[in-house]
Write a structure and sequence with these properties.
Blueprint (H helix, E strand, L loop, with lengths): L8 E5 L4 H11 L3 E3 L10 E5 L2 E7 L12 E3 L3 H10 L13 E7 L5 E7 L1
Parallel strand pairs: 1-4, 5-7
Antiparallel strand pairs: 2-3, 3-4, 6-7
């Protein structure tokens, strides 16, 4: 028995936040929304980009994840950073990691998101 991969990451949002999630994850990050299986709740939304699947679920007792976070690999960190800043999102640098450029931002709900580019 062995772990063979990662299927998806789930982030929580407050009730009614799906449209704001779509604006952020598709409009700014460039992910594609994919349909949820009919057997699952009608709330929330799913996104994909490259090999990443991100599930956004509604939590009635929502609290943003301010430490735990997904780290998303991107192919043009400079352009993405400029797009986020122009849309009013903070872009915060952190300690360097060899082989990467990176920064942190937060989605519209305060969930921490790390964006990284291999160099």
């Amino acid at each position: 028995m062995a772990i063979v991969g990662l299927d998806h990451v789930q982030l929580a949002i407050p009730a009614g936040g799906e449209d704001r999630a779509r604006e952020f994850y598709t409009g700014l990050l460039g992910m594609a929304e994919v349909p949820k299986p009919a057997t699952l709740s009608a709330s929330g939304c799913w996104f994909t980009g490259g090999t990443v699947s991100l599930h956004i679920g509604v939590d009635p007792e929502f609290r943003p994840a301010t430490k735990a976070h997904p780290a998303l690999l991107v192919d043009d960190l400079v352009t993405l950073r400029a797009r986020l800043v122009a849309a009013g999102y903070a872009a915060s640098d952190d300690k360097p990691i060899e082989g990467y450029r990176r920064f942190f931002t937060a989605d519209p709900f305060g969930n921490r998101i790390e964006l990284m580019e291999q160099v």
